[in-house]
Amino acid sequence: MLKGLSWRLLHWGFILVLLFCPGALAQEPAELSGLSLEEAVALALRNNPGLQAERKNLAVGEAEIVEAGRLPNPNILSDSGIAEDTYRLGIQQLVELGGKRRKRQALARAKMAVTVDRVRQDELELRAAVRRAYSGYYLGREKYGAIRERAENYRALVAAARDEAGSRDPTDIIEATLIALSIENELQAAALSMEQARNALSFLLAQPLAKDVRLAPPPRLQGPLPDPETLIREALRIRPDSRELAHAEEVDHRETALIRSLRVPDLTLAAGPDLVTGETDRLEAFIMAQVELPVFDRQQGPLLALKARREQLADRQREMTGRVTLEVRNAWQACRVHESRVRNYEERLLEKADAIRHQAQTRFDRGEVSLLTLLSANEAALDVYLAYLDALMDYQNSLADLEQATGLPW
């Protein structure tokens, strides 16, 4: 009997967990097995918690628009004069004059446009960060793979040289062993950099990445870049932080209109039945009105602050124009230079380094050169390939800078 009761308790307990604690069985997002840069950007824009937090400001802005259009609540007014045998009970209502409600709504909508620009700027910066992290992880894996392959090759060469110790210079074998140990250290450093890059990308995506995830190569520019002056004009037009300044000017204009409307006094009205007791004993009605006299407070301080803010916005606009010009030109020049470097490696240096390595291997097999000469040729070829990967990383970083500087995806 006790056994049956225990099973029933477990059964109903499990059902209660499902009903009231649906998160109890929630699982972590599954690790990704394949990814491209475009997919990584889409995941980050959808999942990144920092961006999601910033997007909540849009809901706050919508609430502020609703609040700006709210009408003031009426009040119940009671005024009793025992000596006069008069009892009043009515409704008091504030009537805003000067279009204050409409101007508050216009100001809230202008502030909402600024909030949208800030979210768009965060999205732009996140896209650039994902490109850098994705490229760093992809190229870090390429670098680790190249060093690991060379380390395995060195170990095999040193082992073969030891087997042929009688025909090899002992000093060469010792130096070759040191070189092989040195590249083992490089391999550990490359493994650390690769793991850190994977962690950085996983953080931006808010998504775990499998260590063997298949990554597509980060895309490169298709066709020539537009001239920098065209890009500068376009950046000033569409960059979110540039648009934010334009919308900040609109906020300033709307706030000025609202503050000026505050100079117009509001009207407070009250009305209701007026009961008179005593000898007359009659029921009348009363109407009361109240208006503030704007004699001393005419919003002088807020209007002066807005004047200073307008001058500040003009300075910020000039600074923005100069900053956008600088960032676009620097990013454009960096793209051109790093693209040329990558092309130089692909069209000349990689092929030459590989040819020298093959030539050294052939001559070593014939006994024409020493083991150290072969290892030196291999190291030179590896250095050229690693430098090529660094050039690719610089190129991808320059594309991220160009995307952030222009506000355009590349």
List keywords for this structure.
alpha+beta; 12% strand; 410 residues
Q: What is the fold's blueprint, element by element?
A:
Layout: H1 2-20, E1 32-35, H2 37-47, H3 49-68, E2 75-81, E3 86-95, H4 100-163, H5 170-205, E4 209-215, H6 228-238, H7 240-261, E5 267-276, E6 282-291, H8 300-365, H9 371-406
Parallel strand pairs: 1-4
Antiparallel strand pairs: 2-3, 3-5, 5-6
Strand order in space, largest sheet:
2-3-5-6
Helix content: 55-70%
Estimate the global geometry from the Cα principal axes: elongated
Share of residues in strands: 5-15%
- Helical segment count: 9
* Helix vs. strand class: alpha+beta
Distance between the termini: 71 Å
SSE order: HEHHEEHHEHHEEHH
Which stretches are low in confidence, meaning pLDDT under 50 for 5 or more residues running? 14-19, 22-27
Overall pLDDT metric: 87
Oligomer: single chain
Summarize the main sheet.
Answer: 4 strands, antiparallel
Number of strands: 6
Q: What's the gyration radius in Å?
A: 37 Å
